[in-house]
Amino acid sequence: MSEERTNVGGVAVATGHFINNVRVTSPSTFEDRSPLDWSLKLADVARGTAHEADLALRAAVDAFPTWAARGVKKRAKCLHRLADLIDENIERIAIVETLDMAMLEESLRLRVIARGARNFRAYADLARSYRSRRWRSNGTRNRVLRMPAGPTVVITPWNAPFMLSTWKCAPALAAGNTVVLKPAEWSPLSCSLLMDLALEAEFPPGVFNLVQGFGNEVGTALVSDPRVRRISFTGSPETGRSIGIAAAKNLVPFTAELGGKGPFVVYADADLNAAAEKAALMYDDAGQVCLAGTRLIVEESVRDEFLDRFTRATKQHVLGDSRESTTTISPLIHPEHLARVQGFVDRSLEAGDTLIFGGKRRDVEGLWFEPTLIEPRANDAEIVQREIFGPVLTFQTFQNEDEAIALANSTAYGLTAMAFTSNRKKADRFGAEVRAGTIWVNCFLVRDLSAPFGGTGISGIGREGGDYALDFYSDLKTYQVREDTTHG
Ligand code: NAD
After folding, report:
1. Quick one: pLDDT at residue 29?
2. Same domain for 239 and 287?
3. Which residue, judged by its Cα, is nearest atom 12 of ligand 1?
4. What is the DSSP-derived secondary structure letter of residue 172?
5. Separation of CA 26 and ligand 1 centre (Å)
6. Ligand 1 centroid to 289 CA: how many Å?
7. Does 299 fall in a domain?
């Protein structure tokens, strides 16, 4: 047991696991570097194995009965305290996450970290306000009760690590489950700060735990353990599949929020300026956003006009240091990821797709990749069909509504879809016929935390958000009492 901390931009960040409310080290560590300057080592982080997975799960199993029995009001108090502490620490969390993951610091400060606090508040309030469904039938009074499900494993990806972790941990904890969180090995530090705040918020030992390390080491140990009663995962479809297999072996319900390849459809009757400006935002955070509309699909009659406006809007982007407020495009997370993005573009151009702009990294020193637009030779091109998770969009056109919808539905993904039109009928048809978990018309990233969230196809299994998440983290039980059962 030890309390090793490292200085990250002036913030002391613990590099160990967090189990039973104490920091735990491992015999080996892994290096965590900053995408802003790859020569800068931020930390040597504890490298968890099956041993630490076991310790964390044991803690979560032991703490579960008391936390579950604590009652929703008392649990909600803890969650509210944590939400307040997150708000008080936005600055520190933003500094660390910017250095660790390179997300734009201003957007972390103004929106993303505060959303983490909102996640805890919203689920605390929602869990408290649950009214069980009641009805009478067959001579019985019936109710649907929620039982906390048990120890829960939450596995999160490297993009927006703090917010995405709170999005899953908050409903699990509010529902009465104990949690073991494993953040991604490329951006592990902001979740470590979350554990400091959980301690300060007086979560009892073992209720909220963190293990650090690699997916194929500590990650597999966690998801395959039979003591786990829920698994909640956000990441790539490939990992989603292997976690699904592990969950199936133990018959454990799991949700998977996976990759996206959202269509961004622009009808000729749309406000083209607004559409072009929103489309240019798809390059934000270097395109490392699962919800982004990365396939621009534009009505043929406004092709040149839209392209002109979109190109002008894109030129406003500034590639730079994510700590500067003038920067709009950050570097990619990791040299391996940069090589992956470059690989997609190179293969696309070799295969005969047309480069409209961009196509290469900014310079040899950093991990920046230029905003890139490619017109594919055909819809089955890899660049259209596979998630790239970088600042690379494709450009296609359509002649009529049927074709627009067919193109929108033409990949294996189904996370989000966007349309721009001034015609409500077209909007409603798009909403009805496009297969995606979330559809935005004339807007983007508008989120209501009570709404269901998830993906269709290879974009995911299950839904979180609002009561959908609280139901997932609970075992629902039907309680029936014969009408003539008397009081006392
Ligand atoms: P990834 O699947 O490589 O890793 C995600 C997490 O899973 C990491 O913590 C990793 O260590 C862990 N992991 C890997 N293999 C594992 C295994 N066998 N068992 C247990 N855990 C394992 O994904 P990534 O590269 O970190 O993230 C990018 C992907 O996440 C993209 O596809 C993106 O679209 C997706 N994503 C989806 C959403 C959403 O809400 N749908 C949000 C953000 C990111």
Report:
1. 98
2. no
3. 215
4. H
5. 23
6. 12
7. yes
Is the CB of 85 within 6 Å of ligand 1? no
Q: What's 178's DSSP letter?
A: -
358, 294, 105, 361: CA torsion to nearest 10: -20
Is residue 93, in this structure, part of any structural domain at all? Answer: yes
If one counts the domains in the chain, the total is 2
Tens of pLDDT, residue by residue over 324-362, are: 999 999 999 999 999 999 999 999 999 999 999 999 998
How many residues can be counted in the chain?
488
In a domain, 385, yes or no: yes
In angstroms, rounded to a whole number, what is the distance separating the alpha carbons of residues 441 and 421? 7
As to burial, measured by CB atoms within 10 angstroms (0-12 exposed, 13-18 middle, 19+ buried), residue 429 is middle
Catalytic residues: 257, 290
Same domain, 286 and 214: no
Span 146-174, average pLDDT: 98
236 lines ligand 1 (CB under 6 A): yes
The pLDDT value given to residue 362? 87
For residue 298, give the CATH number of its domain. Answer: 3.40.309.10
Residues 324, 212 share a domain? no
Ligand 1 atom at shortest distance from the alpha carbon of 240: 2
- Reduced to 3 states (helix: H, G, I; strand: E, B; else coil), residue 45 is strand
Supply the CATH number for residue 160's domain. 3.40.605.10
Q: Name which of 385, 350, 390, 386 is nearest 373 in CA terms.
A: 390
Tokens at 340, concatenated:
């992956």
Which of 487 and 284 is assigned the larger pLDDT? 284
Checking if the pLDDT of 1 tops 60, the result is: no
Rounded distance, CA 187 to CA 164, Å?
12
Confidence of residue 366 (pLDDT cuts 50, 70, 90): very high
Contact 313, 281 (CB under 8 A): no
Q: Is 259 in the pocket of ligand 1 (CB under 6 A)?
A: yes
